[in-house]
Amino acid sequence: AALPGPSPADWAQAPLDPAVRAVLVGFDEHFSYAKLCQALRYLLRGGPDCLLVGTNRDHRLPLEGGAAIPGTGCLVKAVETAAQREAFIVGKPNRFMFDCVASEFDVDPARTIMVGDRLDTDILMGNNCGLTTLLTLTGVTALDEVWGHQDSDCPARHSLVPDYYVDSIADLLPVLGE
């Protein structure tokens, strides 16, 4: 959406949908200043009764060859900063999604494994939910980072340590065939 006029006064006067009661921030390759303005206006109009929800806090998304792009967490932070309040995160590492799945299906945490490439989302969520955790080293995390958390005296850093790790998810294929 474009800004509704040339000046900030115009932007603050654009009509708002009266039915909107939540602002959801997810990955959006077309995120813009106009959307940020609109999100803030809904949050200000609704006050605490207008929910601010984020899908995740991933600060960057890894690409091949060590490149990266900004992740959804950057967009969530922009809206949080403008609104001066924190979003409720429904994705990892929050256990909200796991609890939703577990309420619909017979999930035994003792027989469930969380596989991921990020300590601060995948592994943390798995550990918070009582799951076995497996880190793949094909993403944003290096093994020396794991050892740093493991050797730390800080309990919060220990929650970032996986139970197991593999260089690649492909390393599991022989085991899965058994």
From TrEMBL:
Molecular function in Gene Ontology: sn-glycerol 3-phosphatase activity
Name of the molecule in the record: PGP phosphatase
A cellular component term, taken from the record's GO annotations: plasma membrane
Keywords on record: Cell membrane, Cytoplasm, Membrane
Species of origin: Ptilonorhynchus violaceus (Satin bowerbird)
Record flagged with keyword Ribonucleoprotein: no
Annotated Pfam families: Hydrolase_like
Domain of life: Eukaryota
Keyword match Cell membrane: yes
Chief localisation class: membrane
